[in-house]
Design brief:
510 residues; disordered N terminus; 24 strands; 4-stranded antiparallel sheet; alpha+beta; elongated; 12 helices
């Protein structure tokens, strides 16, 4: 709760009768009263304001400079005090001021950020220091424990919510731009509790991530949620980036948001609040629109733009591959059955750059017609594995599933070499599924696959000279190949043959 302490000087205000008497007897004194009153009003208007993300219960990012900023009357000197540090700035001609706290050590001790101006003091209480992550995307990131219109609740939501007593895990929900929002959990930090999850309808996937990071690192964690269902990646990109590179590249904002609208309303105002990194769960809208071939470029551009906005060129960025679903049978039927695996390929390409990563979800779906799968716990925990292993240095944690590295043709068989393949096995103990194979005629057919020395050997009795293999290359893929950590293999193909992913006739249902 923002607290304002009035330290302005008190001015004596005479009674009406006294003012009339003075007007007759001492006009000079009246002039002085008028002048002092005007001066008082001007100074009283010199208020200090900070963006909504600065509030009671917030978490500040440890180990990096921490920007704190706001507005005040131009020329006003503002001081910020926290944890023994005092920083000073002068508001510019546009009223903006900013200081940067020196890097802080993690602390669960509730402390106060104090911001003072000429005649006003702001206090933000119960401030902790730890790890902060910015979580964004569309409806699968937005999905709360309780579901929503047309959505089922998250698996075991009653038990998960009842156990959510983590006062050092803090939640901040950025309001949607498509409708007014107010109340608990919107533009104010909340201490995580069952009531906080209910009132804020906070992201289940982000919660499970934050809970695991908090419990493993034993430091406070802050989660900033900025998500909106039915929106494309285009809406989350800066206007300049989109206009320069992607205008006309099949991009649409979504059901209401235009290109760059959400970046301007739900991202940019919250930067450069210090964070460790970003979580991203989006893509259904672009895929459904048939916007596939440019997605990797758009994702890479978004990552770079967000890192620049936060002044963190090395910030980790972790995403989620879309779950299997029959997009080709969706209402508008704009794409073929190969659009989703091709989209996975685009996601993998973008999220294989330095300090990025992705989690696979081919095993987390029980209904190929549900775009909002209910297993958000494993999504969050897999994202936490990536962060713990690749950001926080837990080298003993396996964070990635088996990933295609290369192949060799050995007579009638193709041998697939994989990274992250220790303990390679079938999840259900059955023969490996979802492999297909082709010869030079480029006609893929189901294949037999077996594990040998953490490699996969693929063949078909019908092909004497195979040249290419595809794995999980289907919108309804549900493969059973995993590694020793239980993480599913990444869909792949060894060929680069053209793939038809958009329907020529939107009314064609064949």
């Amino acid at each position: 709760m923002l607290k304002m302490v009035d330290t302005s000087p008190k001015i004596f205000v005479p009674s009406p009768a006294a003012r009339i008497r003075c007007l007759i007897e001492d006009p000079v004194r009246v002039f002085l009263w008028v002048f002092l009153g005007f001066f008082f009003i001007v100074r009283s208007g010199a208020t200090i304001h900070c963006p909504d993300q600065f509030s009671d219960h917030m978490v500040l990012q440890r180990d990096v400079p921490v920007p704190i900023w706001g507005t005040a009357t131009a020329g006003q000197v503002v001081t910020v005090a926290f944890a023994g540090q005092i920083k000073e700035a002068t508001a510019g001609s546009d009223g903006r001021w900013e200081v940067a706290l020196d890097p802080l050590l993690a602390s669960a001790e509730p402390r106060t950020v104090t911001i003072r101006g000429a005649d006003q003091t702001l206090r933000f209480d119960d401030v902790l220091v730890g790890e902060v992550w910015f979580c964004s995307g569309q409806s699968n990131m937005e999905k709360s424990f309780f579901g929503g219109p047309g959505q089922k609740p998250v698996d075991n939501f009653e038990l998960e919510v009842a156990a959510a007593h983590f006062p050092s895990l803090r939640l901040f929900k950025i309001p949607r731009t498509d409708k007014p929002q107010a109340g608990p959990g919107v533009t104010t930090w909340l201490r995580c509790s069952p009531a906080a999850l209910r009132e804020s309808e906070f992201s289940a996937a982000a919660y499970f991530f934050g809970q695991q990071i908090h419990q493993t690192l034993n430091v406070p964690v802050g989660l900033m949620l900025s998500s909106l269902g039915g929106t494309s990646i285009d809406a989350w990109m800066p206007r300049s980036v989109y206009a320069d590179s992607f205008a006309g590249a099949d991009g649409k904002g979504g059901k209401f948001a235009h290109a760059s609208e959400l970046f301007e309303g739900m991202v940019a105002p919250y930067a450069p609040f210090a964070v460790r990194g970003f979580l991203w769960y989006q893509g259904e809208r672009n895929l459904g629109n048939g916007d596939v071939e440019h997605y990797a470029e758009k994702q890479a551009a978004l990552i770079e733009a967000w890192r620049q906005a936060w002044r963190r060129p090395d910030a980790p960025f972790f995403g989620v591959l879309l779950v299997p679903m029959k997009y080709s049978n969706a209402s508008r039927k704009l794409v073929t059955a190969e659009a989703l695996p091709l989209f996975w390929q685009q996601q993998v390409k973008a999220l294989s750059a330095p300090r990025t990563g992705f989690v696979v979800t081919t095993d987390l779906v029980s209904d190929f017609h549900d775009i909002h799968p209910t297993n958000k716990r494993d999504v969050g925990l897999r994202l936490a594995r990536l962060a713990l292993a690749e950001t926080y240095g837990y080298s003993d944690i396996t964070a990635r599933g088996p990933t295609f590295r290369g192949m060799s043709i050995e007579g009638r068989e193709i041998v697939i070499n994989l990274d992250h393949a220790a303990g390679l096995r079938a999840r259900d103990g059955e023969p490996l599924t979802d492999f297909s194979i082709a010869d030079r005629r480029r006609e893929f057919r189901p294949a037999t696959a077996r594990i040998e020395d953490n490699r996969v050997v693929v063949s078909s009795d019908d092909l004497a000279e195979p040249v290419a293999v595809r794995f999980a290359w289907s919108e309804s893929a549900h493969p059973n190949l995993i590694n020793g950590a239980g993480l599913p293999a990444v869909p792949f193909r060894t060929d680069d043959w053209p793939v038809s992913y958009r329907r020529i006739d939107p009314n064609d249902t064949n």
